[in-house]
Amino acid sequence: MKLTELIARHNELNQALQSDEVWYSFELFPPKTERGRENLRIKLNQLAELEPLIVDITWGAGGSSNTTSLRICKRAQQLHGLNTMLHLTCVSMTREELKQVLQSAKEKGIQNILALRGDIPKGGKKVDNGLNHAVDLVKFIRSLHEDYFGICVAGYPEVHEEAESPEKDLFYLKQKVDAGADMIISQMFFDPKIFLDFKNKCREIGIKCPIIPGIMPIMSYSGFTRMTKFTTVNVPKEITEELEKIKDDKIKVIDFGVNTCVKMCKELIKEGVEGIHIYCLNQFRPVERIIKGLSLRSSRYRRPYPWRRSTIQKRRGETIRPVFWTFRPESYIYLTNKWKTFPKKEWNGTGFRRIKPKILKKMHPWKSPVRTKQINSIDDIVKTFKDFAKGEIYSLPWRERRLNLTIEPMTEKIISAIQNRIFLINIQPRLNGILSKNQLHGFGGPGGYIYQKRYIEFFIAPERIKLLVQVLKASGNLHYHATNCDGSVVYTNNTERDVISITWAVFPGKSIIQPVVVDPDCFQNVWSKEAFDLWIYQWRDFFLEGTKSWKILQEIHDTYFLVNVVDNDFIHSSSQTEYNVYKTLNTFFIKEKKLQEKKIKEQIHFKNLEKIEKENKILKEKLKELGIKIPLNSIKKENK
Ligand code: FAD
For residue 160, how far is its CA from the centre of ligand 1 (angstroms)? Predict the structure, then answer.
């Protein structure tokens, strides 16, 4: 979507929600290494959760990373559901090359360009008959593609270093806007007053478009000093003095960077800026802290669906997804990428493809301390799941994203289930008619009501599955599906194999939407294969073949069951009745314990009998030796 449309939509929603939330955009750069690219993929996943209005990807004026920039924009739109803006510099590119890049951007569905002159790289030279200034690029884009692209340009609150004069710099900035730019993003600055003065001057000379402050959070001392050396940016004395004091403590520097940034942004928001552009430097956590610090996290409820829809044209009709891929959305999009349309009738499994293990491994190299920790017993696996639930481990093979404990509180019941060797991989809370503008679980804009059934999904050991199924069956108001890795043993009470809606919403004047479902065929034929594969490709394979860790993980894959349970009672609150699903699990644990106790008692009894028989035999032999004859039943009686 174009910038102008995105801003208009944001403002409309603000009006409907009676909110004055500002929007924010994130700037990222294309990494040079394979590891950097993988890191960016994970960061994009995380940054997407912060609901930026747009994400922009920088452009190497030397041309080295240009195809990467285009590719990242495409992936961010397709896999992460983000709107993107491609930076494009003109100074060392021919008109033909620029034409090709613009065409390629259009074909990839990219609708926004940050039009820049760029700087000629060391050893490089200006191309013949090329474009000299950003204004020429703006004109070039408009002449070729008219209104197709939203265009942004760069502005310099502290004047561009090559400018003839501050007045001339502003004059040329106005030229860029008059040539067709929709918005200005500023160079970084560290004194809000400088930006506000610049904005005022722009208004005075008749620039009417949005002027957005570019904010660079200080993330490391060395990075900061390097960056400020290259630019003519003025750094207030308080900042340099404080930084000098803490420069050897990385954590303190980040804390200071976040706090300074929040303080600056608060001041700018108070003065009426409508958006904030953050130079993220491909980081997530400091950016998340800044957004939280500005209380802007609530933006989550602005998304149309509980999951993020791709921004590419083909997937715009997508309105429904299975719950299974909630925490692996990229994988789901990958799987369904060949679909031409997204009607419900394609739900019955046929459209899904299994991701090749090789691609899967490449796509999700699971980074976590667990990966390298040796596994000596099932207890180590239990501990891993427990540590994840407590937020101490950031990811599991089934969940790349860290748990958000505000949205997904890990109650005692959940922790207790994990302690009881229930390896939880997905949980959805129960919602009964909450407002669609609810800041934690809302979606779809204002005016609606959201309903949701509690859903849990977990792996369980094979010797426990029959009793579990018995208890689930007896519970009355639960639906369950369970399968082993090859699908040779299946348990379910959904005999009609109905697709069960587990999230639905009602909006005024619209038909009910049902964006999240449990599809038994999809679970059986597609998701369970992927979920079991993850034990192998995302965990077992990090260990040497034949080691204890490797064997334990292989055995889990080969023998365990994957179970999902839908709690149909979405009405009763926890105070009226205990959550059905956890109550049922508890019943299962109690029954299992009783059975185990009975078994132990029986074993002790049999051992005692064996002991008595052995003693009788010895006694009999001794009596025989002594030539004493006593009837056998009287010996038994004595022993008893
Ligand atoms: P211009 O607008 O062309 O201005 C450059 C200089 O020329 C100024 O001094 C101006 O006063 C003067 N000038 C402008 N028009 C005329 C004219 N018609 N006649 C005479 N003089 C004129 N660089 C990258 O390589 N890749 C990126 O992805 C990138 N992203 C950026 C993002 C932002 C938000 C910003 C602020 C900068 C970014 N840059 C990037 C840096 C940018 O390329 C440099 O600052 C570059 O030196 C100027 O680019 P510009 O588009 O502002 O140039």
Answer: 8
**Domain presence at residue 73:** yes
- Helix 580-626, helix 462-474: angle, nearest 10: 130
Is residue 289 one of the residues assigned to a domain?
Answer: yes
- Selecting among 5, 21, 27, 271, the annotated active-site residue is 27
* Same domain, residue pair 367 and 434: yes
Query: What is the SS3 assignment for 550?
Result: helix
Contact 426, 332 (CB under 8 A): no
pLDDT in tens, 539-551: 888 888 999 999 9
Q: Which atom of ligand 1 is nearest to the CA of 162?
A: 9
The CB of 163 under 6 Å from ligand 1? The reply is yes
What residues in the chain have per-residue pLDDT under 50? 348, 350, 365-366, 575, 638-640
Q: Counting atoms of ligand 1 from 1, which one is nearest the CA of 188?
A: 36
Percent of the chain with pLDDT over 70: 91
Q: Which domain holds residue 611?
A: 594-639
- Final residue belonging to a domain, choices 549, 577, 605: 577
Give the residue from 524, 582, 535, 584 showing the smallest Cα distance to 557: 535
Residues 469 and 515 in one domain: yes
- Could you confirm whether 610 is annotated as catalytic? no
User: What residue owns the CA closest to ligand 1's atom 43?
Assistant: 118
CB of residue 170 inside a 6 A radius of ligand 1: no
Q: Residues 200, 348: one domain?
A: no
